[in-house]
Structure formats: C-alpha cells, structure tokens
Design goal:
Layout lengths: L11 H11 L15 H11 L4 H14 L3 H6 L2 H8 L5 H17 L8 H5 L6 H12 L8 H10 L10 H11 L5 H14 L18 H5 L17 E10 L4 E5 L10 E2 L25 E2 L4 E4 L4 E11 L10 E3 L11 H15 L6
Parallel strand pairs: 1-6
Antiparallel strand pairs: 2-3, 2-7, 4-6, 5-6
The structure holds iron/sulfur cluster.
C-alpha cells in the first residue's frame, strides 16, 4: 500500500465530533454545558457494573428519589439500602455503596474526592470506577476500560491476545488516544461507541468515526474480537428451599449473614448448597415439621461462578407456629418490602403459586 492511501491513525477528535452529534441522553449524564453531579455519576457506575443500561434506568430513578444526595444515602438504615438494591444483584456492591456514602459524608464533608487516587481510597471504588468517576464527574485525564471499551480497542487495533491478558495493552492504547481537552467526554464517547455502534454482533462500521483506521474492519474480522480465554464453568450446586406459609398468609424468611454470597439479603430458608446434595434428603433440612411437598420442577439459577439447582418444598402451618431462631414470619402483604434477591424471589413465586393452587390459599 502506498503512503498516500494509508489510513490516518485513530484520533480522539473524530470520536469527540461523533459524540457531539450522537451522545446518548442518560438520567445520570449531564447535558452539554451542565456540571455533572459526582453522586449520580458514582451511583450509576456502581449500578452499571455487569448490568445493562436498560435494566439500570428504572432502578436509578427510584434510588435517586429515595436517596437524592450522598448524605441521604449515608444516613439511611442499611436494610433500606439493601431493599432499594434488591433485583440488581451483586449485593456486596450495595454494602460497599453504603459504606462509601458514609465515608464521603463523614470524612469528606459530602464531597467526592476529585482525583483517581482520592477516589480509590473510598470503600468499593476500584480502578475502573475511580477512572470513570474522575473522568466523567471531574474531567480528569483518567482511563475507564469496561467491556464496551475493550471491544472497541481490540477491534480498532486488532489486538489478538485474549482477555484478560490483554487488559494492560488495551489500557495503554486508550491512554495513547486520550486527548488533553475533554477527557470526560472522551471516556463517555468510547462507552457510547461500544454500546451503540461497535456492538458485539453486526457492528455498524459504516457509521463509525474510526472506520478508516480500524484494523479489524479492514480485515473483515470485527466480530471475532475481543478474543477471550475460555472460562471454566463452575460445578452445579444443589440444595433445597422451603416456602412455609402460616394460616394467616405470613411466610417464613430469614436474613442471610452480612458477609458472603448475597450477604445481608433476605431468603426463604434453604439447605446448604453443594455438588453432592440430594433433593430426596431435603426434609432433614426443613426449618419446622410440617406436611412438606416437593415441587416437581426444581429451580435453576446461574451465579457468576456456579449454576445452582434448588428443590422447592412447600407447606402450610398453623397460626401458632413459632419461627425458629434467626427466622421470622413476614405478613403476606409485606413480602414485597423484603430485600429478596432474584434467586429467592423465584423460589418464593414458585412456592406461592403451588400453595395458591391448593385448597386453603389466602
Ligand atoms: S469500524 Fe467497526 S469494528 Fe472498528 S471500531 Fe468502528 S464499529 Fe468497531
């Protein structure tokens, strides 16, 4: 290829010009000319980790109505925060979010530190979030590499090394492109490009501001990037979940320990979860003696590290039944207020459906 026909290298200016015309309007994003609110930027970044924008939007709006400022979030009881988070998954994030709000309120007079290093010192803020908040909220020349950015960069530079090994190289490439002016817009533009144009399947290369310098597009291999080291799937764990309804419709629940998987969230009582658990032995783990009935179809749920299969057992119990230690009966009308993660919502719904179809449903 002669020098005259060689494509120009990718330039931040082309991406920013595209962003000025096509930027997405998002509830946490400042409009052109507005000052971003670091609190909203931070909450959105925590919510968006591993979740889509479409899923986060309604949660974000409700969360902001309930906790409009970092001080309001810091002052809220932990149960309220967990409940507002229920459904988003990754509950350790909600605990860290709360701890971070308290740290900002107590040690920084309600103002987020405005540098990557300062943000890194707060609970629950890792490299990605610190970079994203520093760039977006404070226009610092910081790098925030998420899945969208990884996809764009590996395609643009045809980076063949699989993830996660290629992360340092991707970061280096972003740093090299980072413009001295408008680094916050650059970070958001990269995210928008990955989310709307350089999509995992059928990227719209014809509309891309970097279509000329893009190496993968030139080779026709866009959809093969990013390359990934295959993950080992975790072994399936098995267990049992017990949906017990009292005569007045109240359901037996308990709060999980604060630390560990789904820590601090609410569950219907369950057995241990293990690879060797046998559903036929589940009665041994029932929280009270009752006429337990096992549903024909077990509940399946996939956590990040392992799939789970739970046998669901249901029973009714008289009004004078006492909740075992560490458990409580929640009135039927108040079940929606409990911070159930999705897996236990599924168990509860399956159990209640089975109880409803039996004669003396509430
Ligand atoms: S040209 Fe296509 S593959 Fe390359 S960065 Fe743009 S959208 Fe992605």
């Amino acid at each position: 290829m002669s020098l005259a026909t060689q494509p120009q290298p990718a330039r931040a200016a082309d991406l920013l010009a595209w962003y000025d015309r096509h930027r997405r309007v998002l509830p946490w994003r400042a409009l052109p000319g507005e000052q971003p609110d670091p609190y909203r930027v931070w909450v959105s970044e925590i919510m968006l980790q591993q979740t889509t924008i479409a899923a986060v939007k309604p949660f974000f709006e409700r969360f902001m109505q309930r906790f409009p400022t970092v001080e309001a979030l810091a002052a809220a009881p932990s149960d309220d925060v967990m409940q507002a988070w229920a459904g988003l998954g990754y509950y350790s994030r909600a605990r860290n979010l709360h701890a971070c709000a308290k740290a900002v309120a107590e040690h920084h007079r309600g103002r987020f530190p405005d540098t990557e290093d300062g943000l890194r010192e707060l609970p629950g803020i890792g490299a990605y979030t610190a970079g994203a908040v520093a760039a977006i909220a404070f226009d610092r020349p910081a790098v925030a590499v998420d899945g969208n950015v990884e996809r764009v960069m590996t395609r643009l530079f045809a980076i063949d090394e699989p993830l996660p090994g290629s992360k340092p190289l991707i970061r280096e490439r972003v740093l090299a492109l980072l413009p001295p002016a408008r680094p916050g817009d650059f970070a958001q533009a990269l995210m928008d490009l990955g989310a709307t144009i350089c999509t995992p399947r059928s990227p719209a290369c014809g509309l891309c501001p970097w279509r000329d310098p893009c190496e993968a597009r030139a080779a026709g291999t866009q959809e093969t990037y990013p390359h990934k080291t295959p993950k080992k799937a975790g072994k399936t764990r098995y267990g049992a979940a017990f949906v017990l309804m009292r005569e007045d419709g109240a359901v037996l629940v308990r709060t999980r320990p604060a630390r560990g998987l789904l820590g601090g969230m609410v569950e219907v009582p369950t057995s241990e979860w293990s690879a060797g658990y046998k559903a036929e032995d589940a009665l041994r783990d029932a929280p009270v003696t009752a006429q337990w009935r096992r549903l024909l179809v077990p509940l399946r749920h996939v956590f990040t590290h392992f799939p789970l299969e739970l046998a669901v057992l249901v029973a009714r119990t008289p009004l004078d039944t006492l909740a075992p230690d560490g458990m409580r009966f929640t009135p039927f009308a108040r079940l929606r207020e409990e911070a159930f993660p999705n897996v236990f919502l599924k168990a509860l719904e399956a159990g209640l459906e089975a109880l409803r179809s039996s004669p003396s449903a509430p």
